[in-house]
Structure prediction request, 775 residues.
Amino acid sequence: MEYFLQQLINGITLGSIYGLIAIGYTMVYGIIGMINFAHGDVFMVGSVTAFLVVLGLGLTGGSGLLLILLALILVAAIAMIVAAAYNWTIERLAYKPLRGSFRLAPLISAIGMSIVLQEFVRVNQEGRPKPIQPIVTGGYEIMTRVTEAGEFIVRLTNMQILIIVSTLILMAVFTVLIQKTPLGRAQRACEQDQKMAALLGIDVDRTISVTFIMGAALAAFAGLMFFLYYGVTDFFVGFLAGIKAFTAAVLGGIGSLPGAMLGGLVIGLIETMWSAYFTVEYKDVAAFTVLIIVLIFMPQGLLGKPEVEKV
Amino acid sequence: MTAQDVSAPRAQAYDWSAIIKDLIGTAIVSLLIMVPMVAYKSVITQYSLVLVSRWTEVFAVLALILATRLALHLFVWNRAPSPVTAAAKPAGTAKATLPEKIGPWVFPVLVAFAVFLPLIFNFERRPIDLGIYILTYIMLAWGLNIVVGLAGLLDLGYVAFYAVGAYAYALLSTVYFPYWFGDGVVPWAFYITLPVAGLLAALWGVILGFPVLRLRGDYLAIVTLAFGEIIRLVLINWFSFTNGPQGITVPKATFFGLPFARGEGSFSDFFGIEFNRIHYFVFLYYVILALALLTYFVTNRLRRLPIGRAWEALREDEIACRSLGINTTNTKLTAFAIGAMFGGFAGCFFATRQGFVSPESFVFIESAIILAIVVLGGLGSQIGIVFAAIAIMGSFELFRELSVFENYLPEGTDPVHFRMLAVGLAMVLMMRFRPRGFVTRRQPTVFLKERKAVSGDLVKEGHG
Prediction:
């Protein structure tokens, strides 16, 4: 039971990170119907940027709590802005000119862009993993059980609390943004019918750009959290995290925001539980298998609408 | 009225405020992109990580970007659309142009060059190695072309079939054949395994194909990617079967039972020539050339069969295809199976050439490179693929040789590092400017009375 509880905590933490990335996939898919294959790499750019800023600020676990919190907000802001600039540029250069091209063109372009981002970061920052000392330390012991093998302690670390709470805050802000503001209305309108939205005076191109920016900002935040949680990042983290987040987006129902979050949690839990109860080596296989099964048997996902292809 | 009068670009007055605004915007975005990532580099010293700043590079690149953008504003984007180019577009019924005239000769010349390549280079090791390397990728790309270029199914896990072929050879020749038939069969293992590897890969193609039949383009791409990764992860982790990340050492192929070695009963002994290591590489070269040509001719014949036409119809419109009574299930499965089969052949060859297989050789980036070759070749054009493979794989080698430039590049920059960056950029630029490839003309496989080549300008993107 205690073991399960610990895995549940770990899974929810991981799931929050996947969920934040998944939102970018789902929003872009919802609005222009393409898989932004480079989104995982935008997450990586956010993560590496966060690493550079943390290193530049000289932030360590020894600083005071308030200072760390303020510094992390600054780091998050910089990472989000930088990643947003990346995704905006990608959309401008690689996707926008391809609207109306044949249907595989944007995806191929996105794969190319994904390679470009990875290699760009690798060329500039070298391929080595970038480690850092833990910054957010400490935590709470929720439950202790003494067994004959020793005592098993269920821990909830401050880092996990930070990840879960900040994800909740971001989700709340984001939901308000989509539901209540003119910007969100424009986005939902473009999602339903771009031509009609344009006729009613919505700048469709601008709305799409904003969608990419928002997705990138959330992914960069996830990148920061990922980097702080694992204490290491490199140019390749975006590949696996990207595929898993995409799985989350599809599982939740692509195009649906709550779905993306839910899907993220489910994928995070599946991965953690699989590592805990079966084999660590095959945890990625488990995630990929979920992806395949979901795409084949329930392509509309948990909360999505079934899609009808028209001629 | 001569064409020149009309087409002369009418320069408009420059809108300076707009240009300056645009330049400032460009500068801000470029700086955001470059400042953390390029301006600061983390370097591991003895005790800790430190940041090294590189502002000169940042400002040099920024100046370059701004200058380019300004030049584009001043000289390219201010032109009024000239009426001639606008009007000339539809009139594309094309007299025979130069590419069309030399078109039929390109392939025979290439084949002749390939056949005589070892002679031309006087049996030197390096060109032959490079030839083997490029031909392997040409073959892989021709195989993938069946799936992506002809049937329009984007397969991001093609390297899985390559892996199946390679591991089929490695496991059969080292473990199973000696166990089943005794050691006497080992010299013949390559010839026995080659078809088996192809069949196994085709089987995997069908296994993968079945579940993904209902998926559309981009979902299909992601599922094939996941499938490829699963195969790789299983190869890494199923230690007792595949020897995990350590890989398997595989025996060399033989010349129909005659080993390439010194002494009694070897290839050189049998033909009464002096032993030379190069014989083996020349042999490998001709094997891969034969395999690649087999792929080419089989694909070309298949294209003219009903199944090939069904593939191309499927690529253009699946729903229309189904309404015309084409069995899309069989069409997709055959495309997957045949594409995979050639991947399996190539994998079997790869295992022999390498003498060693490990899961490291079958990562996603390999699939991406093969896909890049197909894309640059123009999605469906077989000759285009040859040139794309030479360009990409040749440039990889070139990047390796570029140490000449080291003096001009900043300290510690190795041109080799830029090669994948170049491939990624090429894919993006290709989709942006020439989505139908460099060879846009299509030789129709079905025609009424006379064969009219279709110009790339005439067909909408995604057709033709």
About this structure: DSSP finds eleven helices and four strands in chain A.
